[in-house]
Fold this sequence. Notes:
alpha/beta; Rossmann fold; globular; binds NADP nicotinamide-adenine-dinucleotide phosphate
Amino acid sequence: MPSVLITGANRGIGLELTRQYTADGWKVIACSRTKLDGVIPLDIKDPLQIQQLATQLQNEPIDILINNAGICNRPNEELDLFDHAEWMDTFHTNTVGPYMLAKALAEKNHLKIIANISSVYGSIHLNNRGDHCIYRVSKAALNAVTKCLALDFAPKKIAVVSIHPGSVKTDMNPGGKISPSESAQGIREVLSSLTLKDSGSFMNYQREILPW
Ligand SMILES: NC(=O)c1ccc[n+]([C@@H]2O[C@H](COP(=O)([O-])OP(=O)(O)OC[C@H]3O[C@@H](n4cnc5c(N)ncnc54)[C@H](OP(=O)(O)O)[C@@H]3O)[C@@H](O)[C@H]2O)c1
């Protein structure tokens, strides 16, 4: 039975990915910082919890890690000039946490794919609007994590990609254009056709390559 570990599995895109993979017969290791039955507690900002999870799952085959958990800061105009805490919180959640989890699991498990749920907002090339600076920077840095890990994990034959899930109607983006179901379906299709040749790339849920 193929298996997938999903962070931020309690709502939004993560919940929908969990539903779809489960319905498809996969073993789903659903992780959430919110305590729920059948879900493994994981605050992606907590290095101790990450280490404990990796040890708990040691030698358990995990085909896919989906680093989905993320936060989006308030728009620039709502931020204080020196909102250091918001910078650190977003960077820790969207960039450092996914990196730590990927490293911890790749050390102890037999991963095949690491999918970092990034955002088109993380594309420096496509940024023609400014705004949401903290979020953009955290996702651009997550894309850099993808590239680094793709190179670092090439000898382990783990494919590492960044995926933009689309503009998805969730708590994070109430005005989103597509449903979590459509996004999750697209992400699953992308992941099902990935090969090592794709490692180190940035694409959307429709498999279109995005510029960094
Ligand atoms: N929606 C969009 O249009 C869109 C577009 C581009 C990229 N994305 C990305 O897609 C991913 C999912 O977003 P979404 O739209 O589904 O957002 P969402 O509905 O706000 O859900 C975010 C999820 O991340 C979890 N999370 C946040 N901080 C966490 C932490 N420290 N530890 C563990 N879990 C944490 C939340 O858990 P709690 O319930 O505990 O807060 C929740 O499960 C994010 O990485 C986001 O940046 C979304």
